[in-house]
Amino acid sequence: MARDVERLKERMSLLEYLQRYNWKPCRAGSRQELVGLCPLHHETRPSFYVNAAKNLFYCHGCGRGGDLIRFVQLFLDLPFRQTIAHLEHELTPAPASQLLEQTAAFYQLQLHRHPEAICYLESRGFHSHTIIEELGIGYAPGGNLRRHLADFGYSFDLLLDTGLINSQGCDAFCRRVIFPCRQLGHIINLYGRSIGAAFPHRLLPSPKGGLFAWDSVGSCPNVILVEGLFDLAVLWQAGFRNTTCAIGTQLTPAQLAQLVGQPGRSVYIAFDQDKNQAGQKASYQLARHLLDAGITARIVQLPHGHDPNSYFVAGATTADFTDCLERAERL
Ligand SMILES: [Zn+2]
Questions:
Q1: How far, in Å, from the CA of 65 to the mean position of ligand 1?
Q2: Engineering a disulfide at 120: which of 18, 75, 195, 290 sits with its beta carbon 3.0 to 4.6 angstroms away?
């Protein structure tokens, strides 16, 4: 057990673990120490010290301290042995995650072999190869995923359980543009947008996870929140790299926790302007919730009937959207 503990601590430092959960030091203390808000208790003045060289923490507010294992134990409220098991699991990608990585890589290769997918992306105002690569966007032409994954030794049952194929062995994402949803580096779900007549949106039957691209967006002081991944794609393309997406207007508790996790953050909510007012209602509800949690919330009004994606398809520019952000209503 002692060897396991030492091995775990070699694989990930306390500081790396804290940074995975968006902990940020406010300033450097003396003797190679970093100081920030304590993730273990509520405080407004930083009293949580991390000594990166010694790989130890101490909080002068709640009086607790120790190594990585002790921190995770307190942070997740787990017994010692379970903490070790949890960390082992977190640091080793699960087979399901490897399967999704291989599936996403396969779909990525298919994208450039199928002009209909590229045409679809262009019709949605999206053409930047850099961002297509960065978001890992792919295409499921249908028909050949099972054979490809069988070559890697994945069983029919595993593919069926994961929801990648149906009981006939056909690709469940057939004729869809694919966005891999990542959390802490691992793919945890796939979103597929139909380019044909099928129901537009599809996710695998597993949690949609946290906010999209939070690993990079989470550190921004101003965040733009949109409904759909094509909204996010055109905004990234237009330079708004601080855009994230909840895939829908209803945020999970984990997604809400991410938004309110950093005091002083401003959130620009840019949901669809729906005829039935659904997007607008959801915006106000969310804005009030954020406000209660001490986060500045602004509601972005787009021209009537538009979502960020259709606005750019209709010819809007970076300057036009910047204008909308500047005029956004502050609650
Ligand atoms: Zn504390």
A1: 9
A2: 195
pLDDT in tens, 260-298: 888 889 999 999 987 888 888 999 999 998 998 889 999
* Closest-CA residue to 139 (of 96, 180, 168, 98): 180
The alpha carbon of 43 and the centre of ligand 1 are apart by a number of angstroms equal to 8
pTM of the model: 0.72
Angstrom distance (rounded) from CA 184 to CA 177: 23
Task: Count the residues in the chain.
Answer: 331
CA of 38 to the centre of ligand 1 (A): 5
Q: What is the rounded CA–CA span in Å between residue 72 and residue 18?
A: 9
Ligand 1 centroid to Cα of residue 58, in Å, is 8
DSSP state of 142: S
Residue 98: the pLDDT is: 87
Measured distance CA(255)–CA(245) in Å, rounded: 10
What tokens were used for 174?
């057939």
CA-to-CA distance for 25 and 129, rounded, in angstroms? 35
Both tokens of 315, joined, read 């010819």
**For residue 2, pLDDT beyond 90:** no
Ligand 1 centre to CA of 40 (Å) is: 5
Q: Are 62 and 55 in contact (CB under 8 A)?
A: no
Confidence of residue 92 (pLDDT cuts 50, 70, 90): low
Collapse the DSSP code of 247 into the 3-class scheme (helix H, G, I; strand E, B; otherwise coil) and give the result.
coil
Q: Which two tokens stand for residue 169?
A: 């062995």
Burial of 123 (0-12, 13-18, 19+ CB in 10 A): exposed
Which pair of structure tokens corresponds to residue 301?
């009004």
